[in-house]
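Tokenised fold entry reproduced for absentees:

. . .
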Amino acid sequence: MRAFIRERRALVGLRSASGLEQVGDSYYVISDDSPFLFRLGRDWQVVEKTRLFEIEMGEGARIAKNTKPDLEATCMVEWQGRRELLCFGSGSKTPTRDVCFRVDVTDAHAPQNVRRVELTALYDTLRANYEIVGSHTLNLEAACLASGSLVLFQRGNISGRNTALDFEFGAFMEYLDAPNLSVPSPRVVAYDLPNIQNRRAGFSAATDWLGSVLFSAAVEDTDNEIDDGAKLGSFVGRIVGDKLSWIAPVLIGDEMAPVKIEGIAAVSASEDPVELVAVTDDDEGVSEVLRIEVR
């Protein structure tokens, strides 16, 4: 299978997009360099910004690497009669990136009641799990709901350990409600992903779809989990149960597209073709939204 970019647009005013989630007729985007949650309208442009946290920074500036919570994963859940967006820090630096922001999106056009949850106790247990990180760094880059579980994805572009961390949903949400409780333990499943130019792909986005998980995996020319590198390309794929069903390179024409996909959402229930929308993180300029067709 191959994934073709059919349309691409600049996301004006939004840099370093790092996650995408559909809520009703809106799409929400997080950024790893901004304190805002962005809502996109039907024309794929920013129509609203919600502040997630306070931080001192100049107009148009990016958050410094040593202070940012590095929000890299987001998913929508329904819990206790409300819809919430969960926005997770990557955990690649502790304690600054050991965090989750909970946002009430019961009204898809009016996000409210932003709450911050510190996750160092949970993340420390993940860091200590060799099955998840090996001898490398925790770097959570995607999240989704799947078959009654909340799944976090460890990006293994350096360690080679691309793993899905499968938490029982109720237990995970109870922990977010009361982080002084015992931390939940995940079931860990590892996946082999392809390389580009001897650089490994690493999980970078995920979404639930037709009882399965659609994901993206990005490839960068970098030697560590913290620093960005040249964008070598991305893949999209599908996991059914615990098995990798298919994985496809993201192309422009017949060439690998030099894009770093960090958020995806399905736009149809068709399996032939699979139609996706994705957001990219270029680490320097304006992010893009892509319409992708997989066949």
The domain at 3-294 is CATH 2.120.10 (Neuraminidase).
